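Worked example

This section walks through a single chain of length 211. The input is the sequence exactly as stored; nothing has been trimmed or padded.
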Amino acid sequence: MAAIIQVVGLGWAGETDTRTLNALYHRRVIARQVNLDSGALLPNASPKNTPQSCVSLPTDQDPEQIRQRCTTGDVYFIHINDELQQIILAIYGKGAKSMMYAFVALTPDGRTVKNLLHYQQNETPFLGARVEDPDWLRQWTGKKLLNDDAQPALKVVQSGADPQDVYTVDSISGATMTSTGVEKNVNFWIGECGYGPFLQRLAREKLLLSH
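Given that input, the structure is written out below as tokens.
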């Protein structure tokens, strides 16, 4: 709950007032699940209560090394009076040393990054662990994860990402494997095996928010 509030810019790291977080979360956040195959939202389902099936992934279809892919994914809608403000996708995958769990916040177009937050990871301190560094994360705002053909297009480059290139971000200095992991994880979850079908439906259909 605290991580979602933080990634959308409604709170800050270290906030411990549970009642404040709980009230803000329930006022501004709608938690749902999506069928990853069809892209359809499951009706009024809490992410904690919906049964799902999972299948093992062959190595050549598992760049993020999650080993299995399940039929549902968690999605969170940030709203004001049922008007959509941001879409939060739950993603995860392998870094250099650990599984990294993150939320990516998107604008209502389903393509443009508002923020990225790794809320659980065990990468090397001062190197890969800088996936949580605000200075590194700041460059993500405004980047596009999907191109005009709705295909994953993010690239994490070793140095000198053009600020005008909406598809590239600089890697973390000295942490190539972690940076590559971030790229693979984001592109997997934004693609056809992840939330891609949902985002395509979002682009075609008006989303009606309801608790």
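What to look for: The mean pLDDT is 90.
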